Amino acid sequence: MPVSLTLDCSGRRLRLDRPRIMGVLNVTPDSFSDGGRFLEPEAAVAHARAMVEAGADIIDVGGESTRPGSEPVPFEEELRRVIPVLTALRAALPVPLSIDTSKPEVMRAAVAAGAGLINDVNGLRAPGALAAAADSAAAICVMHMRGTPRSMQREPRYDDVLREVCGFLAERASALRGLGVPADRIVLDPGFGFGKTLEHNVALFRGLAELVSLGYPVLVGVSRKSMLGAILGDRPVEGRVTASAVAAALAAGYGARIVRVHDVAATADALAVQRALGRTVGPPTTGEG
Ligand code: 7PM
To answer: What are the phi and psi torsion angles at 186 (to 5°)?
Structure first.
């Protein structure tokens, strides 16, 4: 099987020979993690710059809250939030930028403004999203979510969560490949916390190697999530930094190639220790062959 050590982000190659850090930059007014402090482009750039200095390899810009139960934001509002920030980041920072969106209009405008990665928590299920992503030159992270942010935590049920999530992601990757997207533009993400109970999240995390074996780079986002709060006995979000860093290192040990995190410095330390002392993870593979 041919091996791709890089992710093609609109012609800019991100090496995946070691796990990479995606720093989260929320530009929503209601984000649970930052309280919407980064709505102004200058504040957003300052925060992103600090994340890059702490070791972030990608900055993920999100303008729509995906909080469980949240209402969708009209695309015009999402554009108003993210485009000025992407434009400012593009001019200020050397790293690839990611756009966290499910809307085809936002994907196209964000890519035109310099985003090199489309991060869709809805797995490209919105009408037009698959085509918008495929038509771009950007890398695409396809995430699994059961239902919609509004409905996803209503009694999630699976017969076999690992099989269902891997099956969904494999099908989405095939759909992209069928539209001409090469394997080195595709990333898969099991979507921790999106329509999953703690038990489902644990089964997915412990089964990450199975998702990795599909042959695409895997992204893991567990930073500050309630599954970590639950493991620590209902620990509030401010007390989840250490758990998030440990989980990032464990994910890397299972073969994840990108970790999406809020606390970049702690994650960088955890990944450095994993790399020095943890089990060796082989090169990432493409889905080719
Ligand atoms: C409220 C609830 C606000 C949940 C934010 C969140 C992921 C993501 C998010 C992920 C990928 C968060 C989530 N999570 N994109 N976007 N993977 N690819 O905790 O796990 O940041 S939003």
So the answer is: -115, 135
